[in-house]
Amino acid sequence: MVEESSRIADPGLRADARRNLGRILVAARAVFAEHGIDAPMATVARRAGVGVATLYRRFPTRDALVRAAFAQQMETCARALTEALADPDPWRGFQRLFETICELQRQEQGFPAAFVAAFPDSTAEHAQARERAERDLTILVRRAKAAGALRADFHPSDLAVAVLSHCGLVAALPHDSAASRRLVAYLLQSFRAEAAHGALPPPSALSLRGFPIAADGSQRQRPSRA
Amino acid sequence: MVEESSRIADPGLRADARRNLGRILVAARAVFAEHGIDAPMATVARRAGVGVATLYRRFPTRDALVRAAFAQQMETCARALTEALADPDPWRGFQRLFETICELQRQEQGFPAAFVAAFPDSTAEHAQARERAERDLTILVRRAKAAGALRADFHPSDLAVAVLSHCGLVAALPHDSAASRRLVAYLLQSFRAEAAHGALPPPSALSLRGFPIAADGSQRQRPSRA
DNA sequence: TCATAAGTGGACGCCGCCGTCCGTTTGGAC
DNA sequence: GTCCAAACGGACGGCGGCGTCCACTTATGA
User: Fold this and answer.
1) Of A9, A155, B27, B225, which sits most exposed with the smallest number of CB within 10 A?
2) What protein residues sit with their CB closer than 7 Å to strand D?
3) Chain A to chain B, count of Cβ pairs less than 8 Å apart?
């Protein structure tokens, strides 16, 4: 927490400013987790015990705040890729990469939304980092295929597909980690070269209550959960 | 379109009112597809060529409008379940059910969001329809397992997991139907009892540009796509 | 043709969020 | 201890969406 904010903080920042910045990031994660990344900026400021002006001085846009708040998680993802590449068993590396990302999204509410929101980020910035990540992933995929563990028709973009769909699941069911684990297990099994089913984690307790399949079509406008 | 609105419309409605109601539903789908289900009500009204008052008279809450707008799709889902149950080959029924739902979400932008938003609907209403859907799905799953096509450890809630994650994917990449198809294919293969890989649809053209794995951690707050 | 009630639409007041401005406080250098 | 620039925070004007109210229009049936 402390070293995290100091990592982001300008070292030339005054002591109180640095402290406030740390508080803001903590508050932002809490508020975003609780109310989503569209929560009012003032709510974050209040939670952090600072004025709105202070918040806006550090983070001119909500987007900047979101990025900063989840920079740690993003970095963990990046590190997971590096570690995956370093693993002598490429499949194990691949598997851990995917599981790490999904676990992060499961734990840190609001991170999935930030992840998705940041996804089509076409700013030229970080271009080199992105390219490296893409290259690294391609290498990892090639190795895992060569090892006979990853199916031959797997495409690197499939990892993005898997992660994004997992994001959506977690966003829809923020407290159902069983569902998340279930999805991860299913996907990993379908990515394996030799198509053998392993054991699955226990299913979600999720009932189908409200599952829209149940619509009977006779509905009329009416007030509802609002 | 016409018969759809008449299905929903009170038959005692005056002719112009019925016409406007139809326009509203069409406009709502278009606007929700374009701007998401949180688009201003006034936008829907303008698009429909009616005043806001008319819109509010028919649909007191945004939620009511969303439900009505996508009632057709919901019903299609319900019908798909019935058809799946009627299919002599339970696996084919199951597969088609899942594919139909996903295709609907792919086609009708905004439907996934409506689907997810409606999901934890705990109003007592439609309870019987929901129960029936749940029961039907359970039967379908049991049959497909008995036929040796669906893996034995599949749980009915896994369909919800699959659908919700697909919702999330479509929401994140509204125009990438290749990604959606890929996910569906992966999931269906991992649901099969005999773990054999079939051919996959072509991968998404999605590059990893902006994939948050690429974060380099050196970032600072800054303006961005906003 | 006319009476009437159903239907319409836009103007309007309300509210919550945004982002800035400015008077006040405080850290830290000397 | 003194000073000042950095930092602070809250008040405030602006904006945009919400939902209602009411004077006007029109379908319908006698």
Assistant:
1) B225
2) A 12-14, 16-17, 20, 49-54, 57-58; B 14-16, 40-42, 52-53, 56, 60-62
3) 311
